[in-house]
Amino acid sequence: xxxxxxxxxxxxxxxxxxxxxxxxxxxxxxxxxxxxxxxxxxxxxxxxxxxxxxxxxxxxxxxxxxxxxxxxxxxxxxxxxxxxxxxxxxxxxxxxxxxxxxxxxxxxxxxxxxxxxxxxxxxxxxxxxxxxxxxxxxxxxxxxxxxxxxxxxxxxxxx
Length: 159
Description:
Largest sheet: none
Keywords: Membrane, Transmembrane, Transmembrane helix
Number of domains: 1
Transmembrane segments: 9-30, 42-63, 84-105, 125-144
Number of helices: 4
Low-confidence stretches: none
Oligomer: single chain
Protein name: DUF2798 domain-containing protein
Strand content: under 5%
Helix content: over 70%
Distance between the termini: 14 Å
Order of helices and strands: HHHH
Structural class: mainly alpha
Pfam family, one: DUF2798
Number of strands: 0
């Protein structure tokens, strides 16, 4: 886990990239029904805008309240693993909520079927939560933490 605000920002940049790219691939796959190079290309080309949106939401909207909730429900003697799992879970839930809205608006801007906004958004929240939470806890979180600490050993990014 990051130990200061600068480490937290670098970690957030890395985690957002992994999560946005994976979830974009997942959503485009669900929409197209197949995994092809075209799906990969579409996810890659859509990455910059989705990444900027996710980074903004993570840093300015979700992170503070999510961490407050996480540390309110954690006992003071909680293990580091429990802290990581609780904070990650508290971050994923609101990010899925907001980024599912982002994806819904992106699709509806092309189809113009605005009357389906809440139906598509609700469906997207459920589909994305089923993928995002396990992916974050089991794959992205451990992978990004490992890479982050390899690139930036403790103490190399000072506050």
